[in-house]
Amino acid sequence: MCRIFIQGKIHPEIQVGMREIPLNDKEIPSLSIYDTHSNNVHPIRSAWPKPAKDLTQRQAAQKGIITPEMEYAAIREGVAPEIVLKELMSGKAVLPANRKHPECEPMIIGSKFLVKINANIGNSALGSSIEEEVEKMRYAVKLGADTVMDLSTGKNIHETREAILRSCPVPIGTVPIYQTLERGDLSWENFRDTLIEQAEQGVDYFTIHAGLLKDYIPLALKRTTGIVSRGGSLMACWMQTNKQENFLYTHFKEICEILRAYDIAISLGDGLRPGCIADSNDEAQFAELKTLGELTKIAWDLGVQVLIEGPGHVPLNKIKENMDLQLELCHGAPFYTLGPLVTDIAPGYDHITSGIGAAVIGMLGTAMLCYVTPKEHLGLPNKEDVRTGVITYKLAAHAADIAKGNEQALLRDKALSRARFDFRWEDQFALSLDPELARSYHDESSHSKFCSMCGPNFCAMRITQKML
Ligand code: SF4
Question: For a substitution probing ligand 1, which of 416, 418, 429, 453 has the most ligand atoms within 8 Å of its CB?
């Protein structure tokens, strides 16, 4: 396995890193696959030309300009840059790349492209250090996280984020309301200053709970688990205490002006996402979704790229309604969901309960899946939990890509199956999502033309080969 670089044609100054897997296979001698990992994180975008008048990627697309970022993302996806431009222009995709995060390797999130995954990291008041969080980020990206959200709520939020941003090749997202509280009271002025502080550092997308309105709070309070989003519960409590409308809603245009100046994407938060199966697809959830649709148009008109966040806890039979309504109410803006978890009864296994829902909603058109780790509902994930969460979600995203007929995804499966049938173990490991684990399991049996599962006389593939 090695990293190769593909030069841009429209923008020859760009060099797109891909992972090349050489194979001992005449039909598929090698495979170049999308690679989030980089051993050499540096400000690659600093020397690239910028669109005139500091246009956002959305505004550039609307003017028909293919930026270096668009071509970079297109090469990674194996599609023509015009497809990236078209999807950005219509708002059906986003390319989160703050001008102040030059280390970020551009990528695109939209239903026409490979399904992406996000890994959450960040400290809490009860644990972790800057070094541990940077290490978690590096590990998540190495395993294939397409974006990382720094959800720190503990000490040194600014310094932790700075260390993460300067060594991170993927877009970084945050929920700025967390640091607002660390800086002082929950007020519009304090929130605005937090936004600018984070924008200057280079955060690529912000989760902002602007769609949770005062009128929706009673709907949520009669639920089984009320409001389960941290940002949502904080804003709802503020509204109830101050008897005022959500200031993220009343100041939404000012927020968009700040975001446009840096080309930061907005991820419209689902503060009223259902926190259990009993609350799924309820009035509170869909009332907020409708408002997110209205805000999408305002943000688009101001040149800002938009993602829509989604649930949560949803049983399998109600997932399609979520996807259909999101597309209808939010005008095709990319959906970014947390799972969803398809049952509530498996704490300790919620990477699996949510991975099932994630694969289904990904197949239906969700563009990015936010990972869930085995620690969900139980504690702060450590490095090993990050590993489990990322691999589970790469699996869910890949399963969705296959179901959508993505050729890159299908070819990788074919290459792996050919390696498996030929007993080319090293090729099989190199093509797998978690080569280290696959190799270590095989080493326990270490046979070349069969494995300890069936043994030499019952190895079905070996028997079939004798028949050829
Ligand atoms: S022994 Fe069984 S599991 Fe192992 S390679 Fe052969 S068919 Fe597959």
Answer: 453
Residue 210 CA to residue 235 CA, distance in Å, equals 9
Strands 15-22 and 368-370: unpaired
User: What is the structure's pLDDT at 124?
Assistant: 78
Q: Where are the alpha helices (DSSP H) in 202-339?
A: 217-221, 230-242, 247-250, 252-262, 283-301, 319-329
Measuring from each residue's beta carbon to the nearest atom of ligand 1, which residues come in under 6 Å? 450-451, 453-454, 459-462
Structure tokens at 126: 């009860």
Ligand 1 pocket test target in 454, 458, 462 with most atoms within 8 Å of CB: 454
The backbone region for 80, taken as left when phi is positive above 0, alpha when psi lies in -120 to 50, beta otherwise, is beta
Mean pLDDT of the chain: 95
Q: Ligand 1 mean position to 130 CA, how many Å?
A: 45
Of all helices (H) and strands (E), which one includes residue 117?
A: strand 116-121
Residue found under tokens 């039979």? 317
Task: State pTM to two decimals.
Answer: 0.96
